[in-house]
Amino acid sequence: GDSVTQMEGPVTLSEEAFLTINCTYTATGYPSLFWYVQYPGEGLQLLLKATKADDKGSNKGFEATYRKETTSFHLEKGSVQVSDSAVYFCALGDGEKLVFGKGTKLTVNP
Amino acid sequence: NAGVMQNPRHLVRRRGQEARLRCSPMKGHSHVYWYRQLPEEGLKFMVYLQKENIIDESGMPKERFSAEFPKEGPSILRIQQVVRGDSAAYFCASSPGLAGANVLTFGAGSRLTVL
User: Fold this and answer.
1) A98 bridge partner residues
2) Rounded to whole angstroms, how far apart are CA atoms B48 and B54?
3) Residues near A43 by beta carbon (within 8 Å), at least 6 away in sequence
4) CA-CA distances (angstroms) from residue A63 to A27, A29, B42, B73, B76?
5) Which residues from chain A sit within 8 angstroms of residue B40, using beta carbons?
6) B65 forms bridges with which residues in the sheet?
7) How many CB atoms lie within 10 A of CB B81?
8) Which chain A residues are closer than 8 Å to B54 by Cβ?
């Protein structure tokens, strides 16, 4: 079945560092791809999405590009802030269902 | 505009008791989804409901678990005769319908601990 694999955490960075969280997927067909973020004590929020190959999703300085050839959707941000500390989930859309990775906890220190 | 509301946020039950988790979708959303997150795991799909209908329950355990979304009131996820392995975070999400498929709004989750 469809699956998502994302890099193990936790990830700890200093403010203004470059962030990459790797995400690869296995799917039949061409699913939509998503990054969700969960801040402490809150629900998951959609961060960005891409619906077809070579699409780039972006939001709040974060970017991810749908790469069909490498089945990847890596999340990047050029300069992280303390407020970016959260758990990040990569997901693919399988019809009405989302298939999630295990999540990567990011801590950004001042 | 309140988001997806889940309650209780934390629930403690002893083995053999029943757990009821409630979810009120966002205003205007008619589709509700339940996901479970076991420790160290990603979120796993459990069930997808519309008002008074279960659309897809392929992720629900065959026994002890049930879900409903009545015409009036919140969606309920019910776990009978809980066991320690049911300890997890249960997330509810909602969407406005087919046009908004896959764009889910999540609640903050209900954390069930079974002693």
Assistant:
1) A93
2) 6
3) B3, B4, B6, B91, B105, B106, B107, B108, B109
4) 22, 23, 22, 39, 36
5) 102
6) B79
7) 12
8) none
Mean pLDDT value across chain A: 93
Residue A36 has pLDDT above 80, yes or no: yes
User: Does the CB of B42 have a partner CB in chain A at under 8 Å?
Assistant: yes
CB B44 within 8 A of CB B75: no
List of residues 6+ apart from B62 with CB closer than 8 A:
none
Contact yes or no for B101 and A98 at CB 8 A: no
For B13-70, give the DSSP string. Answer: E-TT--EEEEEEPPTT--EEEEEEE-TTS-EEEEEEEETTEEEE-TTS-SSSEEEE--
Chain A residues in contact with B24 (beta carbon < 8 A): none
Q: Which amino acid is at B2?
A: A
DSSP-derived secondary structure letter, A40: T
Torsion A69-A89-B56-B2 (CA) sign: negative
What would the mean pLDDT of A12-32 be, rounded to a whole number?
94
The partner residues of A72 in beta bridges, in order of sequence, read A24, A67
Among A42, A97, A100, the residue with its CB nearest the CB of B48 is A97
What's the pLDDT at B1? Answer: 53
pLDDT > 90 in chain A, percent: 78
Percent of chain A, pLDDT > 70? Answer: 99
Chain A's closest residue to B34, CA to CA, is: A97
What pLDDT does A20 receive? 97
